[in-house]
Amino acid sequence: MSATAPPAMANEATKRPGRRALSEGKRAERRLGWLLCAPAAIVMVAVTGWPILYSVWLSLQRYDLRFPNQREFVGLANYATVLTNSYWWQAFGVTSLITVLSVVIELVLGMALALVMHWAFVGRGLVRTVTLVPYGIVTVVAAFSWRYAWSQDVGYLARLFSPEGAPLTERASALAIIVLAEVWKTTPFMALLLMAGLALVPSELLRAAAMDGASAWQRFTKVIVPVMRPAILVALLFRTLDAFRIFDNVFVLTAGSQGTSSVSMLTFNNLIRGLNLGIGATMSVLIFLAVAAIAFVFVKVFGTAAPGSEKEGRR
Amino acid sequence: MAEIVLDKVSKRYPDGAVAVRDVDVEIADGEFVILVGPSGCGKSTTLNMIAGLEDITSGELRIGGQRMNERAPKDRDIAMVFQSYALYPHMTVRENMAFPLRLAKVDKETVRRKVEEAARVLDLTQHLDRRPANLSGGQRQRVAMGRAIVRNPKAFLMDEPLSNLDAKLRVQMRTEVSRLQKKLGTTTVYVTHDQTEAMTLGDRVVVMRAGVVQQVGSPQFLYDHPANLFVAGFIGSPSMNFVPAGVEEGVLRGPLGDIPLTDRVRRLLTEAKAPREVIMGVRPEHFEDAALVEEHARAAGVVHRAQVDVLESMGSDKYAYFSLGGERARSAELEELAADVGIADLSSSGAGSLVTRLSAASGAREGEPVEVWFDPDKVQLFDPSSGRNLTYSGD
Amino acid sequence: MVLEVPDRRMSPEARRRAKWWFVNAVVVVYALLPVLWIVSLSFKTKETITDGRLLPREWTLENYRAIFGTSDFVRALVNSVGIALISTTIAVVLGTMAAYAIARLDFPGKRALVGVSLLIAMFPQVSLVSPLFEMERGLGLFDTWPGLILPYITFALPLAIYTLSAFFREIPWELEKAAKMDGATPAQAFLKVIAPLAAPGVFTTAILVFIFCWNDFLFALSLTSTERSRTVPAAMSFFSGSSQFEDPTGTTCAAAVVISVPIIVFVLFFQRRIVAGLTSGAVKG
Question: Would you identify the family this protein belongs to, as annotated (chain A) (predicted)?
Fold first, then answer.
């Protein structure tokens, strides 16, 4: 009321130290924040930022460890080599195919599994527990299990489904098995993410929809899915990026033979087996760009809220 | 000796927002003072400044005569009860209550004795070894109180301690808090947004709005002599009725008809240099069914005849709602009150409305006309631009 | 027709129950079959390993004896455990510090940090293999423990920061105020009130990070060349090419079981925490 015009002189003395103390507290908070984050930030930037720049530099050179003397700067020649190479495009197509197929199947299965875990009224604990087994298994171990299940002489599944052929040596069936292995391993993770999203759907909303005459399927498509949309998108984003870098399963199941190589597999082969650093680095950069493009599409086109990008909660 | 003095205490945030402005309150030793106001009025900030959980931007806080501005909370010797109770979930009730004593390095035997004493007072003895998660809301609240009282602090600070309880328990705990405070005689500052709590608990009430103290006084005084529109509307339930009126030749002209001004009111208006257009305030409980008023009283008062919109029978009384023709009263303070209390009809409908509290014997019926009577001397008049009470005779 | 007979006798409640048990059974088979298969193979004798039967006709520990009899596997196991434990410890310590700052403090650059760690979480690891391969050879880190620990920490940090800051945000910080009012110094408030509440979150994060490091294959394959620092997943892939075992199937499976069983037991034991940890970072907000 009348307090809007305090006598300036009298207040000046008391106000100043107060203000300084406040900004000092603020500064101390900042300093502490930086101090606490610095080690993590330094490690992350040092191990990724610097190498990625180095990778770009390597990709502009002819650099084959078998012929180290021929190292020279070649500009974008490596990119031209890779981008006109049919193996690269085949690997790119295979990777995209595996990514799309496995993510779509995972979404469907994961959603089903999430619904089961959320609503099963018997044995819910059992299902939740068992679901974590694929998550806990080392990918390579699971891949070996699938390899032995489908290899001609050892496998029970091979005997069951194709007694004559060798599924892992034919391109289509080999790809199908890679997708199967990928789906098996990561569906639980998808299901858990979706289940967490499902828990955010208020049960009252579903009861209201039921009262409004919505069938179970309508409740799912008209209420559950729209409410869960952010959770679904985040799960899809995570899994798409993860599937795009598929390596372990391909390496163990087919080692990239019969045209089943993924881009990661191809890069690895050029780099570690072929020791061609220039080409390997070029492929690294291209994969990085592809992943960035996928993330960009998800975030900008679908409006996926990247976790952590929300306003942080204050005390 | 634990009086709490707030001397021109202000809180300004780095972004320039002022949360609390020049609060001057002196709280005597053993007094129970309530800080009340709508959310965001600065009452919790004020409490946190007393606690030491927020810095004081300017002004001085003295507890027991000593400047406290720079002291850490732990060195102020005051205890606090939080709205969420803030019980340590990993400790039992006993450990929760013993925590402040253990920090103060009190010997084990004394801790045990004091905790058990407090538990006995608060009826928590059989729950001492349980965890907060296994307690009911009321029990948790009592544990929070227990943690505050075990170390006999100079003062208690309570931040909406009852607002997480259901209505019935809240009333019960309200008397409990009051009884406990009287028994211990410890200076208490209590923050609430609930005017009923403010009226029933406090020795004195500090009404705040937008960081500024509006009025300080005993509950009855605030009720009888509100300093402005805001206090008038905030204190009392249901809220005071506000209708626009014009002062003309000793008569108050408005939707309730022509009301003759009493000598007292006329004198106050002249002293206050009142404008022509005013806002008239009448409390619902100052109305009565005209049929139940004795003849001579009836003649001295004003009778208004109107059709009852809605009638609510509370058993002990009847609330009759009327709609009034013409514009409703407008002022910034009323808007804020309406927004805070959620009175939709104050803000949404263009026309004013009137709430009256009649005795249970009234024959008023919904949809039928009834005559209501009120004493014109109970009318309060406010300046629409400043909100000032023109009929204020408090000092 | 055949199915209808029990149906008629069952109450609707029992029928629903049966339906759910059927669904559960499908899930259980789906999740466990590959695991049982590899366990079964690991117990089969050389003669019966190609019989394609789900259960071994004769049980043998020969495969386990074989892998523990070679330095190849034992050394790899030591590497795996050591590297994963060290990486987990460092990542969790650094992650806890950063997550506390992100959840509790206000400072410029916070969102940038969150953004960077998100980028790294989505980063294609293979993009780092080429430069790291070259750089580590230059720095003498190639085929050493630190050579693997460094990238593991880096890729585990985003996971740790997300999970932990989600946990930290759940802590009712009013308790810290309450502790101060109860007479605690800031250090006491942290040690006696906040730390006990944060411990489960830190523990859960440690499990997730450990599983992440334990699972890695690409770095282990690319940045090592000898048994000096090769971890089990990488070593397993060399079983097949090596002439040491004439038929590597049994021994590979035995190695697979050895590195899987402890993790599975751990995961099942701390099931609830892991579910909370996996989902909190990703879905909240």
Answer: Belongs to the binding-protein-dependent transport system permease family.
